[in-house]
Amino acid sequence: MLVTRLTIAVILCCAAGTLPGQQRSHAEADSARMLVQRFYNWYVPRAANPRGRDMIMQAATHGPLRFDPELVRWLRIDSTARARAKDEIDGLDGDPFLNSQDPCDAYSAQSVASVGRTFMVSVLGHGGCTVHKRPDIVVEIGHRAGRWTILEFRDPSRRNEGTIPLLKQLQSKAK
Predict the structure, then answer these.
(1) How far, in Å, CA of 100 to CA of 52, rounded?
(2) Would 101 be classed as within a structural domain?
(3) Angle (deg, nearest 10), helices 69-84 and 163-174
(4) pLDDT score of 85
(5) Residue 17 lies in a domain
(6) How crowded is residue 43: how many other Cβ atoms within 10 Å of its Cβ?
(7) What is the per-residue DSSP string for 35-74?
(8) What is the CATH number of the domain that holds 77?
(9) How far is it, in rounded angstroms, from Cα 167 to Cα 56?
(10) How confident is the model at residue 48 (pLDDT cuts 50, 70, 90)?
(11) Residue 3 lies in a domain
């Protein structure tokens, strides 16, 4: 009887200890999804009408969410290569945040998966494009220096390859 009560007490203590962590994790996942949605609400209309601005760099340096410095560095390298290119494409040939050359009218943050200390937010384009069943892009977001930070944009059609490895590969081919 004592063993049963002790076992129940241990189980209850363990369960009570995990609930706040689970609630925090769920709240963080909701925050991650909402922040990614806020980024797309800000970015998509500006990308559709850039008015001569490099909206990829504008978003990376002055957008509503902080970007990881390594991601900004590689986006800047690509931006410079694209600006220098004359007749042929040098660097990315589409928008890395929309994973498209012909973007949809809107993008919605869908599901969120927790991976270690980061979250993977699946984003689906809709309107003005073919109907998509799978996410167009997966945004990796997490806390860096106490702030939410976009860490990477991943292509689900390329085994979640990130923008940084792709840009590194394109840069090495350009040399």
Answers:
(1) 19
(2) yes
(3) 40
(4) 65
(5) no
(6) 21
(7) HHHHHHHHHHHHHHS-TT--HHHHHHHHSSSEE-HHHHHH
(8) 3.10.450.50
(9) 14
(10) very high
(11) no
Q: Kindly report each contact of residues 155-159 with a partner whose C-beta sits within 8 Å and lies 24 or more positions away, as own/partner.
A: 155/99, 156/122, 157/99
Question: pLDDT for 71-130, tens place per residue?
Answer: 999 999 988 877 776 665 556 778 999 998 889 999 999 999 999 999 999 999 999 998
- Residue 85's SS3 state is coil
Angle ∠(100,155,124) on CA atoms, nearest 5: 65
Q: What is the domain count for the chain?
A: 1
Q: What is the pLDDT of residue 17?
A: 44
Which tokens belong to 81? 């290569």
pLDDT score, position 56: 94
Structure tokens at 149: 């930070």
pTM summary value: 0.81
Phi, psi of 58 (to 5 degrees): -60, -45
Residues 6+ apart with CB under 8 A from 112: 29, 30, 32, 33, 119, 120, 121, 122
Determine the pLDDT at residue 115: 94
More confident of the two residues 158 and 14: 158
Tell me the C-alpha distance between 157 and 75, whole Å.
20
User: Is a pLDDT exceeding 50 seen at residue 15?
Assistant: no
Residue 14 counted as domain residue: no
The predicted structure's pLDDT at residue 159: 86
Task: Tell me the residue range of the domain where 79 lies.
Answer: 26-174
